[in-house]
Amino acid sequence: MLCAVYKSRKKEGMFLYVKNKEDFSSVPEVLMQQFGQPELVMLLPLDKREQLGRVSKEKLMSALNEQGYYLQIPPKREDWLAEHRLAMGLSAREESKKF
């Protein structure tokens, strides 16, 4: 099985996998509006892969066969500044100063 992988220009790290290149007919219109103009990243042969980034081959193939697409959402970003401030014994967010 071959699938097309598109990245979002609106949301960094968000990818849309579809069964056929340029065929977004199975993707809900609301999702396409939020995703923005898709930019083709690659055509991916699934039969030669076991793991694809953060999704298993089985989960991806199942989504493609059942709903016609798979949306990969970026992982939640860690707030390193807040973690550092907490480690220093400070509050997670800097208090606003009143003058």
TrEMBL record:
Domain of life here? Bacteria
> Matching InterPro entries, A to Z?
YcgL-like_sf, YcgL_dom
Q: Tell me, what's a Pfam family for it?
A: YcgL
Gene3D superfamilies xrefs: YcgL domain (3.10.510.20)
Report the residue ranges that make up the YcgL domain in this protein: 1-85
By its UniProt entry, which PANTHER family does this protein fall under? Answer: PROTEIN YCGL
Q: What is this protein called?
A: YcgL domain-containing protein IT774_05720
**Annotated organism of origin:** Salinimonas marina
Query: Which lineage?
Result: Bacteria, Pseudomonadati, Pseudomonadota, Gammaproteobacteria, Alteromonadales
